[in-house]
Amino acid sequence: MRAAWLIVASAACRGLIIALAAASCLTRQGGQLTRQTLSPLAADRLAYARELEQTARRMRLAEAEQWLRLGHWHATLSGYLESQADGDNFFMSPNGKTNPELELEATIEGFFSELAPYDPKEKAVQHPICQFPARFAWLSDQLKIDPSRLPAHDCARYEQFKSLVRPESVALVFSSYYLNNPASAFGHTFLRFHKAQYDVPVKQRELLDFGVEFSADPDTHFAPVYAIKGMIGAFPGTFRRLPYYYKVREYNDYESRDLWEYDIKLTPKQLDMLVAHVWELGSTFFDYFYLSENCSYHILGAIEAADLDVDLTSHLGWPVIPADAVKALYANPGFVTGLHYRPSSRTRFNWEVRGMTSAQEAAIERLIIDPKTSLAELAPRQQIEAIDAAQDLVDLRYAKELVGDKGTGPGAKLKQALLERRAEILVPSIDHPPPVPLDREPQLGHGSRRIGLGGGGDLKSQHFLALDLRLALHDLADPPNGYPELSELEFLPTRLRYDATFQHVALDQLDLVHVISLTPQNAFDRHLSWEFRLGSERIDDAGCNCYVFHGQFGGGITFATAEQRAAIFFLTNAHVWSGMHLDGLFHAPIRLGIGPEGGVRLRIAPNFIALVIGEWDWLPAQTGFAAWNATATLRWAVAHWLALDATAQYDERTGTGVVSTYLYF
Amino acid sequence: MKKLVITAATLATMVLGAGSLAEAGPYGTAGCGLGSIVFGNSPGIVQIFAATTNGTFATQTFGITSGTSNCVDGGGGGPTAAAFIQTNRQALSKEISRGNGETIANLSTLSGCTDPNAVGASLQKNFKVIFPDATVSDTQVSSSMISVLRTDKTLGCAKLI
Known about the structure:
Shape of chain A: globular
Shape of chain B: globular
Number of strands of chain A: 23
Oligomer: heterodimer
Largest sheet of chain B: none
Structural class of chain A: alpha+beta
Number of helices of chain A: 17
Radius of gyration of chain B: 18 Å
Distance between the termini of chain A: 46 Å
Order of helices and strands of chain B: EHHHHHHHH
Helix content of chain A: 25-40%
Radius of gyration of chain A: 29 Å
Strand content of chain A: 25-35%
Number of strands of chain B: 1
């Protein structure tokens, strides 16, 4: 029976992979190719092009770092060069993807070709000089190309793009983590081109800048297929230009994520190169791999192509987490020239109400129930502050409704009433921006991967070595700088144990994902805290001593004080375990549990954390009435890459103590 | 499993360069505010998994497609006041009720007005004209706001012709 299932499952799997492959091929059919829309070269131009090709060969330009970066050629595992660009129209030679030299020669010949007549609706076709302005700028410079010998070309579209973007500088923007919106779990990175517009103060024109991002174009929203296709690079990723105000509204307001803008040092010539290269990248796509060649990777690749003095992608490990892109900037000393913080609507609101009197707080609570409530007890300026804060609170609570509705919902009506009330007071508000949270700067965060080695023993006097591996990213006791204070997000945490007495290695735990999001309760924020875990672990109790699959989901509340340095939380969890040898529900190999979990987290010193968590689960109709465990951890971050940890754990069978060293990289 | 469904997502988002520079579609009534992004329902557990494996989940999920509405800035041009107002409607409504703010200042720059504080004060006085109730469409908001700015000659909003 089991064998039959396996065959069915593996056939289904294969079917899925074939379906995915077929679907991904479909996305690859582009429009007309530029290289197939060129007329044969006139004799004199051909001769000049050949002459330039010879010079290029003599100068070995096809091996030059600049050329390789512009074409995104990288050595593959087999040692041959291959471009990461996957759109066919990025190459002037049919073999360009794997041959930088042929591509260089075809590019030179392309510059001297004329476009054959083509369907004007075919937007993919441009004259090669217009389609590859960065290649053209560099080759012109190297080969001293005589512009008078070039064919006529009209680059109106590129020129328009250039005049729109027209940067005086550029920044890498990191949009930070906010776990209550799972979509933003790991953050995001994109470029912001600061538009040159010298006659107006920066604050009055920032929103008019352009952002450029690299993102996938998924053809499915069905989560399992989405996840698999994302892993295997089956979505095409493209570069896009968006107004910066759109990004601000999307991230700062709608998703409530802080934005960190890192100014980077590029000379005017390098800036031109970046604009030109980003345009080039618009004519292709890259297979999008969530874990490696993702939004952060290719944005850094574009910067590298414009500035040969920096190495960025080589500082990225696997997997690539958006915050790693920020750290890669800092790996090049002097490259980051400034850091700006744009607080989210949530951060702004929390700051706003911090300095308020209790009478004002009470007024806000009344206002969001009855926008016309009397505020006679407050001074005029306090009234303004209370109404403003009430508006901000409505924006936070009804974010989805306000942007997704036609203005008929309760949030829209409430907001309208508060707006009307505020508009009658013809006194401008005073902006009190929150201070920059210096210890939250993303570049300060510990490395995203972790390895830990420890030694310990249990109450049965058995000694063991513990090996801890984790691909990403952060747990509640890890060094807190650069991360949200009360969030945990782990991807593939793995715990192995080598038992010295019996001399064998055992897998204790391997989770796919483990997320804890603790949101402290306050007068205005009633968000629930929650935890989710999917993976596997070893059970050693009345049910079995065996290795089982494990899923867990729970919700509850958190209270915190002293800038979240002290927090206490209570969750109710539901669990499911399943394993072949497990004696569970009515003796079936499945176990269900439900029960409370509680914890205390103290940030005793900036780099020293104490965490105590206890859990009890009722196991109805199963062998063993209940299961429980308690864990206490002390962790001291000696440096941002090193922490020392002492953990004691106690459950119904035994107690263990482990002392470990964690390295973050 | 629940999933995010994007029924419509429009904006002046353009795939750069060759290929797919967005074309302005027919003028719709929906405008191009953030309101054009609509959630089908809330994320489920598998969605959380997908999110944790993926740095730019948000952007993809929001599926900002090439523009299909009137907010595409003249087929690849710069931001227009109308597109700016429509996308920033929620922020602007709040700032206008308060008489000042960053979004007003940027709109003022975009429109070539001389003094953002004067723009803020003028818009605040006309709040009920621009936002008579919550159900006015984004396009109505932008046209009445632009007409306020044009009418008040003291503001000198030279780029609004």
